[in-house]
């Protein structure tokens, strides 16, 4: 196939089958997996073809002619006969919509092939005027048995050939239709096999997501316990500070909200375990939950930082006041000592007088 002169006009994916040449009834799968099936238009030859390639081998290479017919034998399976390839092709689709699209495109391409053939015939007649004139001048003559039994035998032989050809066409059509029930079973089998593989992959992914969520939940619980211990330490250090009390209450309330949120998300994880098939929605909720928890964690860290900063300022101020009180006490001790010496001096003066 030349890629420069042929261009794809429609592509889809389907399981490709060919009729068994021995039995003419059973279907033989062309590959284990679904293949890309495309309509191609050859601009040089002005023909349309259906092509499907498996690896380096052309599974389907069927030139569409106006006398071809695409038959839907079930909701997801269709077939057509190719006399040039001397076989019948069958396609099993993933859905009824894909089958309908392929059948509609087959009808369009078939009509285009018919128009192309008519145009080609018109061009042939125009380029060969002698043949056109001869076709108008020579009239068909009836077959008359005037020369004895030999002509009659020839006429009967031609009729027999026509009957045999008709019978062959009828048998070929019957054979091309194949076994509808077998086609349906095989198509459904491949479809169910694909769906089963997808469900198994989704189940493994959901299990991996649940394990990851468990690890994240454990990490958040550990972080919450660390924050709780920090709050207890702050409570023991700042028991007499009113602003610290307010911050502790806010932190306690925030921790309670976080615990409720973690509990709610734990319940959601339990629900997701029983609904693993909805993995996409669960993943979206997980991302949203992680974002909320991360935002909440950042807010808690900010509040904790503010609380620590406030507590540090309070402790610094308290230490400053204690230093000042200590200095005043030392000054008072000096003053009292001086006052006691003055009293002793006065007492000595009074005694001497």
Describe the protein's architecture and organization.
By secondary structure, this protein is an alpha+beta fold. It contains 6 helices and 8 strands, in the order E-E-E-E-E-E-E-E-H-H-H-H-H-H. Strands 1, 2, 3, 4, 5, 6, 7 and 8 form an 8-stranded antiparallel β-sheet that branches. Helix 4 runs antiparallel to helix 5 (242-274) and helix 5 (242-274) runs antiparallel to helix 6 (279-352). The longest helix has 74 residues, at 279-352. It starts with 5 loop residues before the first strand and ends with a helix. Residues 129-160 and 178-183 have low confidence and may be disordered.
Write the layout of secondary structure elements.
Elements: E1 6-19, E2 27-29, E3 35-42, E4 47-54, E5 57-63, E6 71-72, E7 77-82, E8 87-92, H1 96-127, H2 129-137, H3 149-177, H4 180-237, H5 242-274, H6 279-352
Antiparallel strand pairs: 1-2, 1-3, 1-8, 3-4, 4-5, 6-7, 7-8
Helix pairs in contact: 4-5, 4-6, 5-6
Number of helices: 6
> Rg from C-alpha positions?
47 Å
Mean pLDDT: 77
| Class from helix and strand fractions | alpha+beta
Low-confidence parts: 129-160, 178-183
Shape: rod-shaped
Strand content: 15-25%
List keywords for this structure.
8 strands, single chain, alpha+beta, 353 residues
Summarize the structure.
The chain is an alpha+beta fold.
């Amino acid at each position: 196939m030349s890629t420069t002169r042929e261009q794809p006009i429609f592509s889809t994916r389907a399981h490709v089958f060919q009729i068994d040449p021995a039995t003419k009834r059973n279907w033989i799968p062309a590959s284990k997996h679904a293949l890309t099936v495309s309509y191609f238009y050859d601009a040089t030859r002005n023909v349309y073809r259906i092509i499907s390639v498996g690896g380096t081998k052309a599974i389907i290479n069927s030139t569409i002619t106006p006398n071809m017919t695409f038959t839907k034998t079930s909701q997801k399976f269709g077939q057509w006969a190719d006399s040039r390839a001397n076989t019948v092709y069958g396609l099993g689709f993933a859905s009824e919509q894909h089958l309908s699209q392929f059948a509609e495109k087959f009808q369009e391409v078939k009509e285009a092939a018919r128009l192309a053939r008519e145009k080609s015939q018109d061009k042939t007649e125009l380029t060969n005027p002698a043949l056109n004139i001869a076709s108008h001048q020579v009239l068909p003559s009836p077959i008359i048995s005037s020369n004895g039994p030999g002509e009659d035998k020839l006429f009967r032989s031609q009729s027999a050939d026509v009957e045999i050809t008709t019978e062959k066409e009828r048998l070929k059509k019957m054979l091309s239709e194949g076994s509808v029930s077998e086609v349906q079973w095989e198509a459904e089998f491949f479809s169910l096999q694909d769906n089963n593989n997808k469900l198994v992959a989704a189940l493994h992914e959901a299990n991996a997501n649940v394990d990851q969520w468990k690890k994240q939940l454990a990490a958040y619980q550990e972080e919450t316990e660390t924050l709780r211990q920090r709050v207890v330490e702050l409570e023991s250090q700042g028991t007499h500070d009113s602003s610290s009390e307010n911050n502790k209450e806010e932190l306690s309330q925030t921790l309670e909200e976080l615990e409720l949120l973690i509990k709610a998300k734990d319940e959601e994880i339990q629900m997701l375990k029983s609904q693993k098939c909805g993995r996409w929605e669960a993943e979206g909720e997980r991302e949203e939950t992680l974002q909320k928890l991360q935002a909440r964690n950042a807010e808690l860290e900010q509040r904790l930082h503010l609380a620590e900063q406030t507590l540090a300022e309070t402790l610094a101020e308290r230490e400053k006041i204690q230093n000042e009180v200590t200095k005043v006490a030392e000054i008072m001790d000096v003053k009292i000592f001086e006052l006691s010496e003055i009293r002793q001096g006065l007492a000595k003066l009074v005694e001497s007088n």
